[in-house]
Design a protein that fits this description.
118 residues, globular, Aspartate Aminotransferase, domain 1
């Protein structure tokens, strides 16, 4: 299944209304960055989000998400794939977008700037 255009537009609007978000073409899809760090990207049937462990597990337990698997079929760190082929899946995706943005955006703010070499 693929993401219906109207669902994708709703999710993109939610993503882009957040501060400091930049879309970027990466890996043959659109990825979303906050302060230079990726927090979401599209796949054919949904959205992949970088989520904190608790949120990731809650979404998996509710069958709203699954661990994102890379090309070798292994889990890919904190990344979670959320299906978005049906309208009823939209609330979980929007919840995930908020969590991913807060998680990655918050950790980006905490990063210390690199010291310049003298």
């Amino acid at each position: 299944m693929t993401v219906r255009a109207e669902l994708r537009e709703q999710v993109e609007a939610e993503i882009m209304r957040r501060g400091e978000v930049t879309p970027r073409d990466m890996m043959g899809t659109t990825a979303y960055m906050v302060r230079g760090r990726m927090f979401a990207f599209w796949v054919a049937d949904g959205l992949v989000l970088k989520l904190p462990a608790r949120t990731r597990q809650e979404l998996i337990d509710r069958k709203a998400g699954a661990l994102f698997q890379g090309p070798q079929g292994r889990g890919f760190g904190e990344w979670t794939r959320l299906d978005l082929s049906k309208k009823k899946e939209l609330p979980a995706v929007l919840e995930g977008v908020k969590s991913a943005y807060d998680y990655v955006g918050g950790s980006a703010a905490k990063r210390k700037p690199k010291k310049k070499r003298r």
